[in-house]
Amino acid sequence: MNFQALISTIGTLALILLIGFIWGKAKILDSVSTEKMSGVVLKIGQPFLIIGSFFGLDYTEENLKTGFMILFMGLGLHAVMAVISYFLAKPVRDMDERKLSEYTMFFSNCGFIGFPILYALMGDIGLFYGAFYLVSFNLFVWTWGILIIARGRSDIKITPRKIILNFGTLPCVIGILLFSARIPVPEVVQELSSYLGGLCTPLSMLICGANIARRSLKKMLTSGKVYWVCAVKLVIMPILVTLLTWGIGLPDYMVVFACVMSAMPGPTAVTMFGELYNVSPGYAAELVGASTILSTATILPVVKFAEWLTTV
Question: Which of 92, 119, 132, 244 could form a disulfide bond with 67, CB atoms 3.0-4.6 angstroms apart?
Answer without folding.
Answer: 132
